[in-house]
Structures are given as C-alpha cells and as structure tokens.
Amino acid sequence: MIRLIAIDLDDTLLAPDLTIPEPSRQALRKAFARGVAVVVATGRMYRSALPYARELGLSLPLITYNGALVKTAGTGEVLSHTPVPRAEAEGVAALCAAEELDLNVYLEDELYVARRTTAVKHYEAIAGLPAHEVGDLVAFLRKEAADPTKLLILTDPEEGEAVTRRLAELYRGALNVMRSRPRFVEIVREGVDKWWGVLAVAERLQVSPAEIMAIGDSLNDREMIRRAGLGVAVPHAPASLQAEADYVTQADDGLGVAEAIERFVLSQE
Length: 269
Fold this sequence. Notes:
Elements (H helix, E strand, L loop, with lengths): L3 E4 L1 H5 L8 H12 L3 E4 L5 H11 L4 E4 L4 E4 L5 E4 L4 H14 L2 E6 L2 E4 L4 H10 L4 E2 L3 H7 L6 E5 L2 H14 L4 E5 L4 E6 L4 H12 L6 E5 L5 H6 L2 E4 L5 H6 L2 E2 L7 H11 L3
Parallel strand pairs: 1-2, 1-12, 7-8, 12-13, 13-14
Antiparallel strand pairs: 3-4, 4-5, 6-7, 6-9, 9-11, 10-11
Helix pairs in contact: 2-11, 4-6
C-alpha cells in the first residue's frame, strides 16, 4: 500500500506553462484525503517551490535543492540541511570563472550569480525569483558566514554531459554532480540526493521505503525512482531512467501524475 507520494515538480507535475494540470491537482487532493502523504521533491529553491505546495494545500515538508534542504511548507521547520563544503564551492566557482561558465550559487534561500547573462535571465523566469549579481563568486563565498546549499551550472546541452563527468571525477567523494534539465548541472554535497530527502520525510512519518511511490522525469530523480517501493517515470524521461522505473506513464505534460495516482492509489481498496 502506498502511504507516501514523492513528486518532482518541473516537467513531471508541472505542465510546460509551469502550472499544475487540474486532473493531477484533483488526484493529489483525493490521495491526501485518503491519508496518503504527498511531498514535492525538487531541485528548486525552497522559496520557488513553496507557492506550488500552497496551491495544493500541502503543509508537509518540501524536499528542495535536490534533497539538500528539507523544510516544512507550513511552519518552516528545517528537518535537514546539508550544504556544499566551502572549499569545494570555491573550487567550482573558480573553475566556472576561468571557463566562463554561468554558475548559480544558492545561499540561505537566495540566488547569487557573477552576472545576469541571458542564461541566468531564462533561469529566473523558470524559478520566478530574481538573482543577485555579485561579480566575483569566489570572493563572495569567502566573505559569507554560511556554506551554500547548492550550486548549479548553466551550460549548453551539448557540453552539459562533459562538464558533469569532469566535475564528478574532480570532486569524487566530496560532491554529487548530476544533470536535471539538459542545460542544468546540479551540484550538492556527496551523499545528498532527492532520495536522501525522501527518507528524512519518511522517517518522520514512520513510512517504510516499500510504501513510497516516487514520480520523476530527470536524472536527478534516479535514486528516488530506483529505491522507492514503486518508481514511476513519465514518457519524456531519458531511456535509462525509464528502464529503472517500475512503471512509465502514457500521459505527459503534468498529467502522468494523475495517471499514476489513479492507477496505484485511488483504484486500490
């Protein structure tokens, strides 16, 4: 029996226009009414994900920054925060500056960039939040008291895989480097991923992994789809992710969530 549903936001729950389709919204509300916990598991900032949780009426924890920050949508209680170590963050920032790569630095739920390029402005439109332009990101990190929650490199789709492989090798054992969208290279602390966040919520709710359904579309959803009792991918997910899922929906554009919930939760006695 499914007792917890963990859902990716972008390109899974959200339609291309960044709204939640009505059938998926209704399916989630029906599942919640049956006592099934529903959590968002996203690479987004907490502040960027919060409006969607409020739209759904969820007060449960939000799994944000690919699992690096788990924080409740209702009270704002932090269940878990695992930032990127300062030394590694500065190293990535220095490499990006040298190679003229756009780097997002997320610190205390704010977004900082060296400069607001076209790629950054596109990202701002998706996130619905502004970036703070600070110039030298290495100098910025050195003067801040806190470590960043996450880093994200904005790249061309063609070079994204090469950047991911190079950083993963360079920071093996220290950082978890993964791709989400073709242009996004996500960087969190080693051992951190969405499944890490899902487990933090499951432990709080006393739910076992076998009672979890995870739904996603990108490579940063891989661990939660692989390890959940029921892993679900949507049709546009990479073939490698679909191969690891227990079920691939026929519906897409935010409607796969409704299909999965109807099939595996609402139709069950």
